[in-house]
Amino acid sequence: MRIIVTGGAGYIGSVTARMLAKSGNEILILDDLSKGHREAVKGLDLAVAQIGDKNKVKQVCGEFAPQACIHFAAKSLVAESVENPLAYFQANLGGSMNILEALLGVECKVFIFSSTAAVYGEPKDVPLTEDSETRPLNPYGSSKLMFEQVLEQTARATEMKFVSLRYFNAAGADLENDLGEDHHPETHLIPRVIAVALGKEPCANIYGTDYPTPDGTCVRDYIHVTDLAAAHALALERLARGGESGIYNLGNENGRSVREVVEEVKKVSGRDFPVKEAPRRPGDPAVLVASSKRAKAELGWEPKHESLEDIVRSAWEWHKRHPDGYLT
Ligand code: UDP
After folding, report:
1. In this predicted model, what pLDDT tens digit does every residue of 82-97 receive, in sequence order?
2. Is residue 276 in contact with ligand 1, taking CB distance under 6 Å?
3. Residues 93 and 115 placed together within one structural domain of the fold
4. Cα–Cα dist 226/221, whole Å
5. Is 297 in the same domain as 194?
6. What residue owns the CA closest to ligand 1's atom 12?
7. 3-state helix, strand, coil in the chain (%, to 5)
8. How remote is the C-alpha of 232 from its chain's centroid?
């Protein structure tokens, strides 16, 4: 299949693009390289363009004539979205609509969207199902939810089919293809704690120890990046064989606390390091855990890396190999 992968030089996008290329698809990455890495797409075709550049997006889609799109390109920093909501709606809603419009123009009918557990906000009950209430706590989550609604309405009015994948906490590395997580700034727990284990930062911070959870720290559902990538391939297959549009949670259905993650990094790395208890980070829900029953039943998805140890170990190995990310 000819597949355009927007944001394909980023963390989850690069792992997915490589997996799809290896299984024989023709891939074109569209990425502005503002956050993505050229090193992560070596050997794949790359169009350097912003999704906000409507004419360029139209030109690239016109020339490549994709049969499917996987749309990762987005701004994804929650705190930044709170400070600058417009930039988030412009990129994640406006930019995404540019892609959608260009695809409709070339009769591309398969759209896989990179969505997020942030669409739920503060859950009333966990595990979260796709039917749980969606009340995003920040512009990032809102912008993703709004574009899901754009997709639903477009699918009703056109022949376009979509799958929206709501990721829980993506983590780990694709060691086989030497792809890992390299964000600047890095805000995510596992790579931040690993940076401390590698001696690049003085101490790990635990944001909030007074949450209503067993050990007082936030609980998240960590899911390995290659398991996420596999779900995109399955979603593509579903739509390609005429399956219906749908929304799917992607998580391990297993909540782990911040303290547990810090301990796991110590165990896997064999290194001890200072840990500081810090105030809560604004906008963090206490617990986010997925029910992924629907993805398992309808996509045939089966995560292969369920243990936190597996996930942390792969991240640790990649960061040890690349202490300065893709620069090393
Ligand atoms: N967190 C932390 N210290 C850090 C980074 C994150 O305690 O240095 C916490 C954060 O407050 C949240 C959890 O770890 O409760 C997961 O955060 P992350 O940014 O990795 O993912 P999010 O759940 O926000 O998407």
Report:
1. 999 999 999 999 999 9
2. no
3. yes
4. 15
5. yes
6. 218
7. 40, 20, 40
8. 11
Establish if 177 belongs to a structural domain.
no
Cβ distance 9 to 33 under 8 Å?
Answer: yes
Residues of the domain holding 91: 2-170+224-250
205 lines ligand 1 (CB under 6 A): yes
Q: Which of 119, 120, 181, 189 to mutate to test the pocket of ligand 1 (most atoms within 8 A of CB)?
A: 189
Confidence band, pLDDT 50/70/90 cuts, at residue 295: very high
Could you read off the pLDDT of 124-164 as tens digits, one per residue? 999 999 999 999 999 999 999 999 999 999 999 999 999 99
Band of pLDDT at residue 282, cut at 50, 70 and 90: confident
68 shares its domain with 159: yes
Cα separation of 76 and 139, whole Å? 10
- The predicted structure's pLDDT at residue 22: 98
Looking at residue 205, which CATH number applies to its domain? 3.90.25.10
